[in-house]
Design brief:
The protein has helices at 12-25, 41-53; strands spanning 2-5, 8-11, 31-33, 59-61. It has 70 residues and is of the alpha+beta class. The strands form 2 sheets. Strands 1-2 form a two-stranded antiparallel sheet. The protein has a two-stranded parallel sheet with strand order 3-4. A hairpin with a 2-residue loop joins strand 1 and strand 2 (8-11). Helix 1 (12-25) runs parallel beside helix 2 (41-53). The radius of gyration is 13 Å and the shape is globular.
Length: 70
């Protein structure tokens, strides 16, 4: 699956290297994970695992409010 890093699509294989390079320059930066409604849970879990594997310490999720009224 493709991942987006800084608004650029990258393949999952390249995600770890891109994030490793980023974290070398900004080790305390928070990484934000945003997935659209079409994203598969397994792909998001894989991305999170890659982030953890390259040493990301601060990871958050981006959420968007729904337009549904309750």
């Amino acid at each position: 699956a493709e991942q987006v890093v800084a608004n650029a699509k990258v393949l999952a294989d390249a995600l770890g290297e891109r994030i490793k390079t980023f974290l070398a320059a900004k080790p305390d930066e928070m990484l934000l994970v945003e997935a659209d409604g079409q994203a598969k849970y397994a792909d998001v879990a894989q991305a999170m695992s890659i982030l953890q594997g390259v040493g990301a310490k601060r990871v958050g999720f981006v959420t968007k409010p729904t337009d549904e009224k309750k």
